[in-house]
Write a structure and sequence with these properties.
Elements (H helix, E strand, L loop, with lengths): L1 H17 L5 H12 L7 E7 L6 E7 L4 H13 L6 H6 L4 E3 H4 L8 H7 L4 E11 L2 E11 L7 H33 L1
Helix pairs in contact: 1-2, 1-7
Length: 186
Amino acid sequence: MAATRDRERIRDEVVRLVHCSATVQQLAQEVTRLLRRVVPFDGMCLLTMDPATLLPTGDVVENGLSPSATVRLTEIELREPDVNKFTHLARGHRPAAGLAEATAGELDRSTRHRELRRPSGFDDELRVVLTGATGTWGALTLLREARRPCFTPADMQLMAALAAPLADGIRRAGLLGDAAGDDAGT
């Protein structure tokens, strides 16, 4: 019961947060701080995306893959078959999915995991497309280091519930950032 209340409280805090974050970087930092209370993770990557093409436009990474590995990660995401790809999640019925769940515990069935995540010391990942009424504005990946428990169905359910508010937050932060940039240039 307490865990359910904590998750509801975090959702309410995230909804408030998306209305006051001025930049995507600030939003990512604050969301990371809040989420760690109820969904432990060791690394994260928040991508911003163009809602028309679902192509990445920027990222905020904390304890994630190296920049050189990110190039290969993007190649896999855009050109090769893999599980839980952002485009598949965006077009599917669930915006959040765990790698262990999708591979029935055989994480190496994922090219992304086999080539990049495992060699970097990570095991399970939880991916969420940040989709709301105005489109898909980003994606969030939470990572767990090797020998840590896999993400739970409750973790995935919470992250799915946060997808729309976080999409709105990224859209708002992007617009506010653009407006601030325009003001600075005049």
